[in-house]
Amino acid sequence: MRVALFITCFNDTLFPETGRATVEVLERLGHEVAFPEAQTCCGQMHFNTGYQREAIPLVRRFVEIFEPYDAVVAPSGSCVGMVRDLYPMAADLAEDPDLARRVDELAPKVFELSEFLAKRLGVTDVGAYYPHRVTYHPTCHSLRMLKVGEAPLELLRNVRGIDLVPLGEAEQCCGFGGTFAVKNAETSAAMLGDKIRRVLDTEAEVCAAGDNSCLMHIGGGLRRLQAGVETVHLAEILASGASEER
Amino acid sequence: MTPRTKPPDAFSPGETPTFEVSARESLRDSQLRRNLGKATQTIRRKRAVAVEELPDWEELREAGRALKERTLRHLDTYLLQLEESVTRAGGVVHWARDADEANRIVAGIAKEKGADEVVKVKSIATDETKLNEHLESEGIHAFETDLAELIIQLAGENSSHILVPAIHKNRAEIRELFLRELDVEDLSDEPKDLTNAARLYLRKKFLNAKVGVSGANFAVAETGTISVVESEGNGRMCTTLPPVLVTLMGIEKIIPRWRDFEVFMQLLPRSSTAERMNPYTSFWTGVSGEAGDGPQEFHLVLLDNGRTDVLADEIGRQTLNCIRCSACLNVCPVYERTGGHAYNSVYPGPIGAILTPQLVGIGKPGPDSLPYASSLCGACYQVCPVKINIPEVLVHLRGRVVRHKQDGGTLRQRLDPENVAMQAMAKTFSDPKLYENAQGLARVGQWPFARGGKIGSLPGRLAGWTAVRDLKPVPKQSFREWWKEERG
């Protein structure tokens, strides 16, 4: 299978370790990973903030770059959600039936990492070892747009040494919401406060998720409070400790 | 008491504050946060249980959506059919293009009957048209009879929830209000005593009123039957005791056939109050006739007030599917924290955030801010009984807001820092070379802000981020640099 890594501009620039971990997990499972270097941004920030005409060229680029591959994998539920749920709307806005057709062909081949592993490949044990107390925040777009369901939790349950503790009111939004966190900073902070309370209630050392954007928000709050809880992307947990174990 | 007028909102003349500004105030109200948090969490849990009971819930939602969308596609036909059915049953149908026309029709009927008081129930549409204020200006007092509506009318406040307008108040606050306004001597804060005080006050109003004004949950095109769904029985008093009844409803409230109630009467109570069936469901068709109970004269006012504009928007029109259950409010993490007043509209919460700007039109700062009052978490779409894809409409409306600013905008709007930044970033993302340069620039540009491995304070609009969160600095090597080094 020709698997392309859609790193997302956010991870590329701010969380390169998540990208490296994603490559590590996929290669460990025997897949050849391609990284199309022409990729930049899927256009989610522009589209969701209302700058939709500006997002259309980014949609076109994405389709051209990724359509040759059998599968496209990204360590981000929300960027995948953009491609699968909102690219059709962008193609309609562009009044471009050819783009709409190509989007319809490409969209089902674009996966968030945990759904690619658990649902597309049927792998729920990636041979990881992570001896820490971890709680998992499911992130709204993975949960409600992509409907990844139990996929990330199944993967985490099979990690050796992990002490996985359930997060209370886990399905509640953390308050990130892209530009929402800046435009409605106070409301976002109020939502973050409650998420942090739930995270601290678990007494976990690590709060994990499949989206670094939500984690940057939750982690930013935890660090400001000197809470002593790290935020770690799911991919990094799945990539860790494998060599020692095998 | 003389009814107080409510504070202005998006449907009043003049400008309203943006959501961001109003939310700041509500977020600081600890009593409000406590009251709302408790209320929404309780109803959320109950709703989940009530919905869980029905194995065909998803099919019901789909049926509700399909019925509503079909009705909207043929709205012209169904409206004329409704007019014919109501007229056949002895009612009079009036058509109102806007709020002003609707208000003048209702005031005209009341004046003709020589009424200086009307009793009202269950009508957000009349809040939208500002009917009470209009009647007051004509010397007619409108008394709200829904308990929660009465509470906020006595307090001179706006509704903060579609179904539970006084959700922001607890019983201690209501007791104080009643002691002050209802002329009662002693009163505990027990719900039984509070409702009894309201009952004694309202009973007199019901018995004396010559004209009752109601809203409608549904209107059946084939039979001309109007339905109001409620919990207290005050609605039934209002629609049966006064000799003249005027119902004001938005044109989207129509359903084609009597049998369609099978779907909506299952969807609505479970979604709104988490009940299998609500306590009072009233149906009436035209006038009561000579011997029967109920009004001798019935008027139905059909209100457009922007609804046909909503219908013309291919993505936005699903908003008109709404049956006003308020499930979306109860699950919304934004609404739970800011409450309804922050939306400055008779329609708060996620549904209000998409309905208000569409009804009043794009291009007003207050309503334009509403589609941004969401983290796009999607909880609303998941519970909506008629499957309105609220996040999709929110995103679509954000697009309309931005395009309106860019196209009709002044030079100042085009030079808006957000617009300028977004244009620059779009250009950067369109070319990998520019994008890689920008990654390098971000690393260099952050040095004045990065201290001890973190960014604790940022300037301008971005200060909102660092007010409560640290920011991780841009690392030394991007992923693509690593890839080139390792695999290139």
TrEMBL record, chain B:
Region ranges (Disordered): 1-32
Composition bias type Basic and acidic residues, residue spans: 22-32
Q: Which UniProt keywords apply?
A: 4Fe-4S, Electron transport, Iron, Iron-sulfur, Metal-binding, Repeat, Transport
An example of a Pfam family matching this protein is LUD_dom
Task: Output the SUPFAM superfamilies linked to this UniProt entry.
Answer: 4Fe-4S ferredoxins (SSF54862), NagB/RpiA/CoA transferase-like (SSF100950)
Q: Enumerate the GO terms in the molecular function aspect.
A: 4 iron, 4 sulfur cluster binding; metal ion binding
One annotated GO biological process: lactate metabolic process
Sequence ranges assigned to domain 4Fe-4S ferredoxin-type in this UniProt record: 320-388
Ranges of residues in domain LUD: 81-303
Domain Lactate utilization protein B C-terminal intervals: 417-486
Record-linked InterPro entries: 4Fe4S_Fe-S-bd, 4Fe4S_Fe_S_CS, FTHF_cligase-like_sf, Helical_ferredxn, LUD_dom, LutB/LldF, LutB_C, NagB/RpiA_transferase-like
PANTHER family, per database record:
LACTATE UTILIZATION PROTEIN B
Question: What is the designated name of this protein?
Answer: Predicted L-lactate dehydrogenase, Iron-sulfur cluster-binding subunit YkgF
Native source organism of the sequence? uncultured Rubrobacteraceae bacterium
